[in-house]
Design brief:
Elements: E1 3-7, H1 13-23, E2 30-36, H2 43-49, E3 57-61, H3 67-75, E4 84-87, H4 102-112, H5 114-130, E5 133-138, H6 151-173, E6 176-182, H7 189-200, H8 208-229, H9 236-242, E7 249-251, H10 257-265, H11 270-282, H12 287-310
Parallel strand pairs: 1-2, 1-4, 2-3, 4-5, 5-6, 6-7
The structure holds nicotinamide-adenine-dinucleotide.
Nicotinamide-adenine-dinucleotide (NAD) binds next to helix 1 and helix 7.
Protein name: Ketoreductase domain-containing protein
GO molecular function, one term: estradiol 17-beta-dehydrogenase [NAD(P)+] activity
Family: Belongs to the short-chain dehydrogenases/reductases (SDR) family.
Length: 314
């Protein structure tokens, strides 16, 4: 029987692409419940779904910030049976901290972090009872490593990662899988919204030096990064959903592997912080730091082996 997959945030970007891709699967492995906050914004998904609409794809309203709407959506599914939950809805925020209101930050946390928590609270008990299910969470490479001027966004994705890491072990007792998908830059409305917000921001709230670093240096860099490393929204998540043994983490963009390795290599955090500082402000080669990181990694591997022996794992 096809798997029922509920996806949030399907009016654009990754959610839209994934919903259409799963619904049009040649092997008809999936029945997609494509949800969005405002079903009035479904035109792009309807066009992408084509003949799948009404057969393997159904559009429903769901606002991740509203428990009532999550409950109503899940209740409308026969037997409340969801095999795969894809928590995708999310919002971004970039810029100097001083230019961002606390209310906007709380609203971002409410969507990116508590949105996931609300979904899981609604869906996990059914999955536990059925002893099966898969929760796939669109995190970000920024859930592993903070990036300059993304303070609040990165914090929300770190929260997502900590939540999932903790929950995954309990879920395993009930045969429920949890997977984190960690994309680098993906060319979606996410990027365009970032530039629009940057244009609207009130830079008198911060000092001129910070404002200049952000508007001249950061935004220019961001455009370059999206242009050179940006991936299309199709489709790393499908791989995770269809895997016979889904991984707990799936990093979609190999370009970010060195960054993640640097962080792992040096528990003091000195190398990764210097690497970013040099990259953004000094434009010096990070090769020297890379070599130091490799030495540290070797040292770390020895420590991991030692720890494993102490825990009786080897
Ligand atoms: P997007 O802006 O195109 O899609 C986000 C979707 O979430 C939108 O359709 C939006 O309407 C929806 N949404 C926002 N608040 C909601 C709410 N309260 N309830 C329901 N839906 C809501 O951007 P995207 O790139 O497709 O983002 C999808 C996910 O991927 C997000 O979690 C984002 O953090 C993550 N991500 C994006 C990138 C990137 O570079 N685009 C990189 C890493 C991770």
């Amino acid at each position: 029987a096809p798997k029922t997959v509920l996806i949030t945030g399907c009016s654009s970007g990754i959610g839209l692409a994934l919903a259409a891709r799963l619904a049009r699967d040649k092997q008809r492995r999936f029945r997609v419940i494509a949800t969005m906050r405002d079903t009035g914004r479904s035109a792009a998904l309807v066009a992408a779904a084509g003949p799948a609409l009404g057969t393997t794809l159904h559009i429903k309203q769901l606002d991740v910030c509203d428990e009532g709407s999550i409950r109503a959506c899940v209740d409308s599914i026969p037997g409340r049976h969801i095999d795969v939950l894809v928590s995708n809805a999310g919002v971004g925020m970039v810029g100097p901290l001083e230019c961002q209101s606390l209310a906007a930050m709380q609203s971002l946390m409410d969507t990116n972090f508590f949105g996931l928590v609300r979904l899981v609270k609604e869906v996990l008990p059914d999955m536990k009872r059925r002893r099966g299910g898969h929760i796939v969470v669109i995190s970000s490479i920024m859930g592993l490593q903070g990036i300059v001027f993304n303070d609040i966004y990165a914090a929300s994705k770190f929260a997502v990662e900590g939540f999932c890491e903790s929950l995954a072990v309990q879920a395993r007792c009930f045969n429920v899988g949890i997977s984190l998908v960690e994309p680098g830059p993906v060319t979606t409305e996410f990027e365009t919204k970032m530039y629009q917000e940057a244009e609207r921001a009130d830079y008198t709230q911060t000092d001129p030096e910070t404002a200049a670093i952000f508007t001249r240096l950061y935004l220019g860099n961001a455009r370059d990064v999206f242009a050179s490393l940006g991936q299309s929204p199709e489709d790393h998540t499908l791989r995770v959903i269809a895997a016979p043994r889904p991984p707990f983490r799936h990093r979609t963009n190999a370009a970010f592997t060195p960054m993640a390795a640097l962080k792992q290599a040096d528990p003091s955090g000195t190398i990764i912080t210097s690497a970013f500082y040099q990259l953004v402000f000094k434009h010096t080669a990070v090769l020297r730091l890379g070599l130091r990181a490799i030495r540290m990694l070797r040292w770390n591997i020895r420590k991991v082996k030692e720890g494993a022996r102490l825990l009786g794992l080897t």
